[in-house]
Specification:
Largest sheet of chain B: 4 strands, mixed
Helix content of chain B: 25-40%
Distance between the termini of chain A: 50 Å
Strand content of chain A: 5-15%
Strand order of the largest sheet of chain A: 2-1-3-7-11
Radius of gyration of chain B: 22 Å
Helix content of chain A: 25-40%
Strand order of the largest sheet of chain B: 10-9-6-13
Number of helices of chain B: 20
Number of strands of chain B: 16
Oligomer: heterodimer
Shape of chain B: globular
Bound molecules: iron/sulfur cluster
Amino acid sequence: MTNVLWLQGGACSGNTMSFLNAEEPTVCDLIADFGINVLWHPSLGLELGDRLQTLLWDCILGKIPLDILVFEGSVVNAPNGTGEWNRFADRPMKAWLDDLAKAANFVVAVGDCATWGGIPAMEPNPSESEGLQFLKRKEGGFLGKDYRSKAGLPVINIPGCPAHPDWITQILVAIATGRIADIALDDLNRPQTFFNTFTQTGCTRNVHFAYKASTAEFGQRKGCLFYDLGCRGPMTHSSCNRILWNRVSSKTRAGMPCLGCTEPEFPFFDLKPGTVFKTQTVMGVPKELPPGVKKKDYALLTMVAKDAAPDWAEEDFFTV
Amino acid sequence: MGRQTLDISPVGRVEGDLDVRVEIADGQVVNAWTHAELFRGFEVILRGKDPQAGLIVTPRICGICGGSHLTCASWALDTAWGTEVPRNAILARNLGQIVETIQSIPRYFYGLFAIDLTNKKYRSSRFYDEAVRRFAAFTGKSYELGVTISAKPVEIYALLGGQWPHSSYMVPGGVMCAPTLTDITRAWAILEYFRTNWLEPVWLGCSLERYEEIQTYDDFMAWLDEDIKHRESDLGFYWRMGLDIGLDRYGAGVGKFVTWGYLPHEDRYQKPTIESRNAAMIMKSGVYDSFTDTHTLMDHTFARENTTHAWYDEGTADIHPFDRTTTPTQKNTKDFNNAYSWSSAVKHQDFGRLEAGALARQLVAGGKHGESWQHYDGFILDVFKHFGGANIHVRQLARVHEQVKLYREAERCLREFVLNDPWYIKPQEKDGRGWGATEAARGSLCHWVEIEGGKIKNYQVIAPTTWNVGPRDSEGVKGPIEEALVGTPIEDPTDPVEVGHVARSFDSCLVCTVHAHDAKTGEELARFRTA
Ligand code: SF4
Ligand code: SF4
């Protein structure tokens, strides 16, 4: 039996909704087949009022063993560090979080708000939000850089806005079945198994990317979204095109540029005027290139690729 | 007999942090206060940003009806920029929104609402054992199926937008996608799967066609008696148990209802403006006043907000959202005589406080106002009249009744797509004011945007729950949920499941509400911090 307590701070419930889309295993399978016991969850839990408050105190006092604390949403510190703008069960949420993090064997942050602060922490960050162990790329966050859960691990970060259901369930199952040691974390404490490759890996528009064939406007079946529409697929660590969304697709497959939501900088450029769905360029060349690619080499590659491009690269080959 | 005060924090299973205070006398709620306890400040964040920032930010206001926020954000920019939207795109936006709501119905019913039927309070009901078999959290037969299958409809959303939740595929001028035939056939198959594995066999116990014959309360009761499959379906079983445990006996509310209308017709709203919107919706807008039994159209200029009892220092006047200069109170102490919520009190300039949600939509659907071609359905209005007004049980029936109609609308979208026609017409960006509205599963949602100098000057949202969960207004009039709580019997104050029933029957979504009233400028915020 693995006890899971799931709480939401400055959240939109998007990660919960995403989690409920899981199919292998489903949320119900998690409970029936993997011995996961959901102590409480804001959308699914049974208890209300005093009864929930008692349950939370029992976890803090060790009367109920807290194996996994899942946190969704940002940690709200406003106003002036008190956290009173996000009260929960009659206390600032951050006070509960502080106590529960000490009692938990593992702490899992799901979604961008819990990992990096997310949209609420975007400037001017009115709610003084931060992530559990990061604020954007800066280490620290609410629990501090040196925080370790009772099992000796930092907060396991599952970013994404929202996180993909498989990313969440696989981590929960790994912990419940004693296989967490098989999962290596990257320097942002993200499980490498999901975040080592790029969004671009598996994108159906990859062949257009290779030949520099661009989608200049929305509503197209052909072309790559990198050159004009601001796709961040080449620069974003995610498995969105390997482990498809809702089992059927991904943003870039459907024609929507990747927003880079698994990276701490999301939303990029703080959505300043002129940056939304538009590639930032210098003299017609994208300002940001895939990691490790040099500007000069890229310019050369562009010329060669354009020369080598077959006619079909400009055609709609995903015809109806 | 003394009064007892009960503070319930949190109520839970309402999406977001809702706290409720009730005063109980003689085993009944005699007074109630609802308070929203989270403030994130999305509207502050949106100020000064790219005009299209709302397409990325506002779906994240609420991950439960993000597609509805996206719809509002897109139509608001369409009206501000004066775009042309191709019919394919209108259909694709509608389809996305429809499948989000079809997803929400079983997820809400089993996940949030029906669990409470297994509460020990109902042990003596003859329906109890069966309720546990069906609705117990995680393990109930119907719970498991219903929650799992709710993931299916949004696969269609993903075929259009790449993922659900949180895609931004709707943009001013159309949509980003251009589905192929395989996407369309796959979408058909998903709909069929949903119908043949849950909607017909488990939920209705009959075909969609048979269910569609129901037009009145008497028809419904006749349907119930007609076949054991109807009686034993989840809908039939729920209806009978609800009556047995008295869910029809409390939770009335304010007796006046609002919907903005939704699903623009693909041939009637290609040149969207704020003014032409009402006449272009498939599901008409309106206000239903049950006291006079009259229907009237709803217009955005009728909306007012009041912050007398909310944590903002903004005076006591009713103002239109375009004119709000929201200033949050730094010290948000609970003071039930003064301010006690982050939600404002929303009202209609003439009708006062209104209830939003599926019941409101269905009561308006029964009106003869609006255009002759618009959707009409008198069933829920007839049920409402049979019971002499609203209650938990009627609200619930209205919430699940839409499933079949929306299913049919989804089929229609799939039939109407013309795959090689355009999906997007690139608009010209410009300054101006825009307004976009829709109906999220849980009620009326709208966005106001003002663009100046190529950036957002002001962004305002009124969410369904702002209507429903709002505190008292300047005249001390209670919000719809507060009003609905009055008269609620409380059997066991240590486990006030009845309060949960009432609050959850509104399917409130606090995550929407709490951000929605913070339109202060960044500068004011800085001043306010150093003060
Ligand atoms: S659309 Fe985006 S993810 Fe796909 S190939 Fe182009 S840049 Fe890469
Ligand atoms: S494609 Fe990009 S924006 Fe979309 S979910 Fe994946 S990482 Fe996030």
